[in-house]
Amino acid sequence: MEEPDAARPPSRLVRLLSALFYGTCSFLIVLVNKALLTTYGFPSPIVLGIGQMATTIMILYVSKLNKIIHFPDFDKKIPGKLFPLPLLYVGNHISGLSSTSKLSSDLAFNLEGYIFVFLNDIFTAANGVYTKQKMDPKELGKYGVLFYNACFMIIPTIIVSVSTGDFQQATEFSHWKNVLFIIQFLLSCLLGFLLMYSTVLCSYYNSALTTAVVGAIKNVSVAYIGMLVGGDYIFSLLNFIGLNICMAGGLRYSFLTLNSQLKPKQPMDEESIPLDMKS
């Protein structure tokens, strides 16, 4: 069964809404992860990522069983069709969570945090390019890419978490009896699924470049959220000016990119066709 939108090009509205959906999900999950990783002090971005992968697998599998969505059953060719997307996917996922943890609590210079942001930008761009290539509706489709990405990476991520002691720190965390913390943890898992889905949609309906630019703006928004939430912002004029230049440039570039992509292509006037092409 082919996806219903596979046969016709997406409309201007669909492209715009998919980009806005991705940007909104990115913004909301930063707010929730800010509370979990810095306000509550949850020690493991990796375990949080595992929870988001597990949520993705459960939602998509139940939806497939109930015939709400369709993607192919597993066969031995699927790993080859996806590679290297699962590696980029988990790299994008963990670096994004880690950058939120490192930078949202202190906007003074933090080398480790900036490295995570830089890595997240690279993974976002590469993930967008390969996602665009792998989403052929006749192959895995959007939902197949999401489902098998999460399936292939959740077990290796759990192994890494357990072997490094990260999983034990998470299980011994003191706030597991705090109802508000649990609600926010579950909300983060749900938003993680929505973020993955919106990333795929944005890459599917737009270009990988558009997804990368929106992702970069999201990373700068982490810094703005740090100014407004938590009360731990250390003001620096140079830092503040740099953030605003970066955000203004990203917004301007996003506007120009989206505007050029969403403009309908004008048919060529017959008079403008060279004579040698007419003959």
Please, could you describe this protein's structure?
- The chain has 279 residues and is mainly alpha-helical.
- It contains 11 helices and no strands.
- The protein has helices at 12-39, 45-65, 78-82, 85-103, 111-134, 141-163, 166-171, 179-205, 208-228, 237-262, 275-278.
- Helix 2 packs across helix 4 and helix 9 (208-228) runs antiparallel to helix 10 (237-262).
- It starts with 11 loop residues before the first helix and ends with a helix.
- The relative contact order is 0.17.
- The model is unreliable at 1-6 (pLDDT under 50).
Q: Write the H/E string, N to C.
A: HHHHHHHHHHH
Give the rounded overall mean pLDDT.
75
Q: Please outline the major beta sheet.
A: none
Mind telling me the C-alpha Rg?
21 Å
Distance between the termini: 43 Å
Percent range of helical residues:
over 70%
Describe the global form.
globular
Number of strands: 0
Treating each run of at least 4 consecutive H or I residues as one helix, how many helices? 11
Alpha-beta classification: mainly alpha
Q: Could you list the spans in which at least 5 consecutive residues all have pLDDT below 50? A: 1-6
Beta-strand percent range: under 5%
